[in-house]
Fold this sequence. Notes:
Elements lengths: L16 H9 L7 E5 L2 E4 H14 L7 H20 L6 H19 L2 H8 L3 H26 L6 H9 L8 E2 L2 E10 L4 H19 L4 H8 L3 H4 L4 E6 L5 H8 L10 E3 L2 E11 L2 E9 L9 H15 L5 H8 L3 H4 L15 E2 L6 H8 L10 E4 L5 E12 L2 E2 L2 H28 L5 E3 L17
Enzyme class: isomerase
InterPro entries: OMP_Chaperone_SurA, PPIase_dom_sf, PPIase_PpiC, PPIase_PpiC_CS, Trigger_fact/SurA_dom_sf
Organism: Aquirufa nivalisilvae
Amino acid sequence: MKLNRWIFGGVMLMLSWATFAQEASKGTLLDKIIVKVDNHYILKSEVEQQYQQYLSSGQANTPTRCQLLEGLVINKLMLAKAEIDSVIVEDKRVEMELNSRMDQMETQYGSTKNIVEAFGKSIVNLKDDLRTSLKEQLTGRKMQDKITGDVKITPKEVAAFFAAIPTDSLPYLPSEVEVGHIVRLAQPNKNQKEELISKLLDYRKRIEKGESFEELAKLYSEDLGSGKRGGDLGFSKRGQMVAPFEAAALKLKPGVMSDVVESEFGFHLIQLLEIRGQEYHARHILLRPDYQKLDLTEPTKFLDSIRVLIQRDSIKFDRAAREFSEDKPTQDAGGMLIDPGTRTTRMPFDSGMEPGLYFSLDSMKVGTISTPIPYRTEDGRSAVRVLYFKAKHPPHFANLKDDYQKIAAIALTRKKNQAVEKWFMKAKDDVFIFIDDEFKDCNLLTGSVTGE
């Protein structure tokens, strides 16, 4: 078994978003069963589908069919062992994840109508099709966490791992940049606020007169995720929601509605449904201001003044970001943007970068701060930001000094893969495994997977 490749990922237990969508679009494939692991099975078409996805992605070092089948067998063995070891994922957790992924699909396709047209199935039927596979994914993830949760990597191990890589196999990394920003949100004016509050108070009166909170949330709430569920947010742990929302919700008795509550997301009408220990169950109707109509004058003036202070060295950029930025994900990090793939501040400076950011940096010099630039947040809010071009790193072959975090992540993945291999060789004897003769030469159960 050879999972220890020079890669940035581990054993694949979760379907990618693209695969998830493809699973939704296809029916049950009645083709050849090539592996059985207790009550779980693998179809030949699953291996071929994954193989073709790798080929079409253009990635280097495409795994062989045997290597892909190896990963699928490990996944199924984890599911079988999870049943034996009573590793359980609650249905509530599955439903939350399923709703989250359906929300992602709606964002991708633009509307539920477009999803239905694309897949030829109702939303209810799509969710029914995906529920079982999603539960398997979450169970596999939980089982993998159980196997590898205690695996850690030391600096000495990272250095040894890097030293063992042949010089001609070191990856060549593209130009990278380190960038920070300070964001200020445009705020609704008095008239816009009063209009939203008036609408929510009207909804409250209608509910008090007998109309359904759930139906009004479906019709009017601008929280697209919960709105489709009648405003239902499910159970939330204390500290999970933004402070104004949680404070208002926890003051209520079950069944009672709040006054209008303002938070960073907009204006809420909240109804508490249930309190269970440290969790509470609420629903809401959310209205947001029309962000297209918000005036950017004030946040622009504010950031221009902050920019002058930084240029005069009256305040350091990181301190200004912590004190004044309204972008929560970067505020505590002194405004620095984080690459989602490596979780470091060094981001590839190429066409994959957000276009607005790329073209702004392309006209800036390292060490400078931009003038205020209009900016749209991930949740669609109008804002203004200034950019700080902290550093630019030229293309280079990977090395420990500049790329320690990347290399450490790869070394940790390798060590976790070794833990999975060791677990597999022991656990395979605890379950029934059948492998079709067509794939016997893969040597899946011997610890030495072949090329094909």
